[in-house]
Design brief:
The structure is a homotrimer.
Chain A lengths: L5 H9 L18 H19 L11 E6 L5 H13 L2 E4 L11 H9 L4 E8 L6 H17 L8 E7 L4 H15 L9 E6 L10 H10 L5 E5 L8 H14 L2 E5 L2 H5 L4 E5 L4 H13 L2 H16 L8 H5 L7 E2 L7 E2 L8 E2 H16 L1 H13 L3 H11 L6
Parallel strand pairs in A: 1-2, 1-3, 3-4, 5-6, 5-8, 6-7, 8-9, 10-11
Helix pairs in contact in A: 1-2, 1-15, 2-14, 3-14, 4-5, 6-7, 6-13, 7-8, 10-11
Chain lengths: ~400, ~400, ~400
């Protein structure tokens, strides 16, 4: 591993012209590279504090609110862990036991749950064109109420997965890549294959692959996106990845051949997702409540998926990677053939060989979320981090 | 705004012969005026501490338990925020995942969840004759267990809405009125219209209007209750309002004419509720599990409501208020015509014009709940408040 | 009562060669007598700290995770209270809103929720052969991840009821017995009747009676297990109880006669459970999703139960106990005849006569859970307990 020491991280942060104060965390590509680096380095620092049994508490009291419009284990517990470690208490907004309506009321709810709230995390990834919109609407409402003096403080919003991006995931992925390749400068020229993979389930969001290509293309990586015909991602994000790759001295290409993507890859990220066009149709049917057509769509979609069962990350496939030793990545949980499903994204032997790396990849998320909240809410985050590093308050009193 | 300073509030509290120690908060009219004023002033003080970034934590650890037998967003988050700010951790009792029976077992549950609990909040507003009874039963059980030494401490019970009163709401309403009119003495002679309003939904509890007329009549206001024939409130509460108004030098009258109530009103509170007699029948049907008759009742009730669609708070109606500038109030969420429903309690333009006031009205609730718990649980609340005001412990460490 | 003082408890603990460091709490019979005594004495000490308004907080921040695969009120709130008192924040893993699969993924979930977690509580008591297995699998996964450096710390697992044991319950029962009879040495030779009792419900777990006979037989008690033919417990546990009784100088016998068990009993613990063989068949049917046969089994089982309605703990039965004054025990909630059901485990008059004792019995659980976590997670628990006892930090700041 390449986890740098706390003094080194503090020094790096001091040299970095970042400014996350009162900023939200929606799409990584809306944030400057300096801010992303500040989040990464702060996350590493907090992880190191925790590893050595020290407290990162910065709040005396205060709420953090999470809104999960889709199931979640990993991200839910990452957010819960992060806010707890900072001294906040999680209160989930369960829309089943509240009466959440549309239009103005959506904005009203945003204010009503924010009177003593320092951070809000939202997962809303099911409807294309919905999750990101909802989050921006939420931010606008609390900003306005803060400016009007209705709110005493203005919570930071953390996107815990929208229809467009899954930025706490892609930042964890980036942290893993940096650690694995021994430094951010070493990402330049490294080849990563972000590929579709077969899954017996349907309707998986596009935000994970979009998040990855939207982030790593900024750091000079050679990115190959591979998927069967018809499994395109949001065109805007693919275009953005292209532009970013050019600007960073890397590259971005798309292929319909999984083997081609894997060839000489330093890292591979094979994961299932639903085709963009299917998600568009699904969103329309869900909105109109057309249950019969939804079932037809699911059937059609699963049948279509089944044509590509060979898009599996097997030992054979891994042999194509650089010296047969490319890093296998996944956001988890993976559809493991013979374990969690009959035929899936990855063979059990590949998954097992990289299990430790996969868990390590996941281990960054709580600390990166904590970093985002800290950097957005603290007036002088650098001096806060120095204080935390110096007082050495133990987690166990 | 008229939010007085912390030194002034402390001075006022010092002069006030209040005693909320180990008292519960069920119906405002069971508490002395001094206790209500102490809650208001303590709430303002805690709000000011929070506004200036200071901690109001008074507990090291401890649970607060909430029991919501009906949906809630605002009150749920107000309670969650309040107990968190005081240093307690919220644990909701979800009756779906517990096995809560009737009779003795109801009292048993009360004790079983209270071993390390400092505050309990209960919303139980669906059945007439049930919510208040349940809360009193709960209190009796924990009092007894405390006296027997089974419980080491005795949690305070906060009524988060019963069939009779919604006292944390009415206290927020009162706080807003005091602030709006520049002091509690200025409420004398001010006219408030508490009126029914049309809603496309059915079965809304009576406790909000009952709570308002049961509270503001104690402060010399001229209260007009308006509703269509058949939409009476609980007779006991209406009678109480009448008596209290007489004692305080105000007035209380009932009319079936919304315009009459609005005429020259300094404040209006138009809100839908189900008729008392309908709630009685509904309670009987719910208890006997008579689903078919329940549907008939709903149909009949909605049809009846629909006769009074003109009971809407429009711009025209607002022009009737004092100089056309009366304050529009609501406990939220409102049924806004054209926004959250086709035709509802209030027009979008009226709601928008008063949105900031409405959110400000809602902003008192967390601090008033915190005030109730603090006053009931602290041995010497005045010295606690002084300590909080002096040590200036920051919310952000 | 016989609650010894804090200095005495500290002295006792000092003399006790216990070692619970990084140990889990699955089955009492896997732990040494010294460790059980250390848990009991630490629990009493924490209870006394709480009674006198002092804090037992040992964690600055940190999560505790609970997984309830069956309904719970008492144990849920005991766990919530315990972890809160220690300074941890409870985060429930709700499997309905997560995507929990089988096989490897079960172990993955264990790691994913443990990155910043200090304690995990699991109730999984529905399937025979499942709950204990799941807990051991969970432990193995987090141990491995801790050794690999993926986890910075390794949470302690607390069994909150499995198919085999309900150890936080049986330890509370033991604490009550010790208190009631004035010391652990006084348990020697005392007769306890652990008996089946009639209930109109079906499928109650076997873990409570198993937990009791698996624990009290280690302390020299004369244990009689009584149940109708066909209501056997797990043979392994019954055999274990027999062996332990012999080793401790007590006795263990089984009878099909409730009166015989009650005769001269110093304490009785009448409680319903499903026959072992029924649970085996039920587990198979549940696994195969055979709904029709499940209904038949329930019918058959309830009909069988109904043959033994006379297995009720009545005043008549209590007269059989030693001098008619035996202690009536129950884990609660009890099926009280005429209160929570028509005919049940215990008559209302017996229950009422022992209500205070029953609540007292329940009151130990939060403190014993806190003791387990503290002893497992603190490096030097004795010095932690001394510090807590000396600094006298108040619960109310």
């Amino acid at each position: 591993m390449n986890e740098t020491t706390i003094p080194k991280l503090l020094k790096d942060l001091e040299a970095l012209p970042f400014d996350m104060r009162e900023k939200d965390f929606l799409l990584t590509w809306e944030l400057s590279k300096e801010n992303l680096l500040a989040i990464l380095k702060t996350g590493l620092l907090l992880k190191e504090l925790h590893r050595t049994g020290r407290s990162m508490r910065v709040f005396d009291t205060g709420l953090a609110v999470s809104i999960f419009r889709d199931n979640s284990t990993r991200t839910r517990f990452s957010f819960a862990s992060a806010v707890n470690a900072l001294g906040l208490t999680l209160q989930e907004l369960d829309e089943r036991t509240s009466q959440i309506a549309h239009g103005e009321t959506e904005r009203e709810t945003a204010v009503m749950i924010s009177f003593l709230t320092q951070a809000v995390g939202i997962r809303d990834d099911i409807f294309l064109g919905e999750g990101d919109r909802y989050q921006r609407n939420f931010i606008q409402a609390i900003k306005e109420a803060y400016q009007e003096g209705i709110l005493h403080q203005r919570p930071v919003l953390v996107n815990l997965q929208s229809d467009i991006d899954h930025p706490t995931q892609s930042m964890s992925d980036l942290a893993k890549l940096i650690d694995y390749f021994g430094g951010i400068e070493n990402l330049k020229g490294k080849k990563i294959a972000v590929t579709w993979a077969y899954s017996p389930s349907y309707g998986k969001p596009l935000s994970v692959p979009q998040g990855v290509i939207g982030l790593v293309t900024r750091f000079g990586m050679e990115v190959t996106l591979a998927h069967p015909q018809g499994y395109e991602l949001l065109p805007d994000v693919a275009n953005l990845a292209k532009k970013q790759a050019e600007a960073s001295g890397g590259s971005f290409s798309v292929t319909e051949n999984m083997e081609e993507a894997f060839k000489n890859a330093d890292a591979v990220y094979p994961k299932s997702w639903a085709p963009y066009q299917v998600m568009v149709r699904r969103t329309e049917l869900l909105k109109s409540g057309n249950t019969a057509s939804l079932k037809d769509l699911e059937k059609e979609c699963l049948a279509n998926n089944a044509k590509y069962k060979n898009w599996e990350c097997t030992e054979e496939m891994m042999k194509l990677t650089r010296a047969g030793k490319g890093l296998y990545m996944h956001c988890l949980p993976a559809d493991i053939s013979g374990v969690s499903c009959k035929e899936g994204e990855v063979s059990a032997s590949v998954f097992d060989a990289y299990r430790k790396d996969l868990y390590h990849q996941a281990s960054y998320k709580p600390f990166l979320i904590a970093a985002i909240i800290l950097l957005s809410r603290m007036k002088d985050p650098l001096s806060t981090l120095k204080k935390l590093s110096q007082h050495e308050k133990s987690l166990i009193l």
